[in-house]
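Exercise (ungraded).
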Amino acid sequence: MVNDQPTALERFINGILPENPTYRQLLGMCPTLAVTNGMQSAMTMAGATAFVLICANIVVSLIRNLLKPHLRILVYTLTIATFVTIADRVLAAYMYDMSKQLGPYIPLIIVNCIIVCRCEVCASSQAVHIAAADAVGQSLGFTLALASIATVREVLGAGTWFGIAVMPAGFPNWVLMVLPPGAFITLGLLLGLVNWLTALWTQGRKAKPTAA
Amino acid sequence: MNEQTKAAPEIRRKGGGYLGQAWLILVLALLFGSGLAAVQMALEPIIARNKLSETLLQIPNLVPGSETGEQERVNGQLVFRALDADGNLMGWVLPASGQGFADKIEMLVGLDAALETITGIYVLDQKETPGLGNRIAEAGWRDQFRGKPTSKPLELSSAESSIPHHVEALTGATISSESVKDIVNGAVASLKEALAKASGS
């Protein structure tokens, strides 16, 4: 039974692309759509989520043998809420403007399914180092996903990247891209692109052995 | 019904009573609670400083003609005197807060020197519903408070109204609008009272 479960390295790699939380599992859509209108807010959100995810996975993994099946979700939520509150306070103290810009989306990390999902799937049944590797991998996957969406939206919508102008001066900003519809359009197109590339890649891999 | 009466003793026998079931949650709640209290104690002064500098930055927008703010306590209440370049009193800025739909809303209310007109409001902190309640922080909605008379408490209206003490509520965010209105009314009343007491004594 224990041998069936992925190792630390597999967990880490799975999180980045094969089981990417955004493009593969379609979890955490709320921050994905809401805060990707600029790289700065997207990366702050990714950082806060990574902090909460890593801490929650480690704590849940440490106490995994004490969990009672019918009370486990309560323990996850309690743990996650604690770390989210810490992240919220730290942002308000040291990144005040960003904290105001993200507003309620930081407290909403509590209900981000990615974190509950990782606590349930990995941390509640595997050792601490595996849970930590899993959390880091998933956080990287989430960061990559947010970065890709935010790059498209900020470059096309505001002509900037991390607030630095990257488009030629005459570029007409596609304001739609930084507004909510732009989030849906970008997510849909990138999701399609990722699926298409994955399909091409798996077809290529299947074709090779038969050819050889 | 039968299921329930059977299940209860079952749980107690297996897990050693309700405490046996819940001890982990109680211990975690205590640990996390004290951890959060420590974080709050360490960071609160820094957050308060951030809010103070934002308040001082907003004073010229809240009271026309003012350039700086001077913090003082009137009858125990924290207020800012909004002063112009020569140090003349142009108006008052009052920090006020109240319960919103999701969490506490913290606001600044600007009033003219005679406390007759609201000169502007500003939202320092809010966690209202994104897309609905959080529009209370947008300038487009806040600006309608500018120039409202303080002779009567403000009231919400569901459509644009020409009655001076009416403000238009946000569609889909009645509770958030109501909270802001109550915070503003409360702030105006308490500053009036505090200044009256201070000048009376």
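Further reading is listed at the end of the chapter. For now, observe: Chain B touches chain A at residues 15, 21-22, 24-25, 28-29, 32, 35-36, 39-40, 43, 46-47, 50, 54, 102-103, 125-131, 134, 137 (CB under 8 Å). Confidence is low (pLDDT under 50) at residues 1-6 of chain B.
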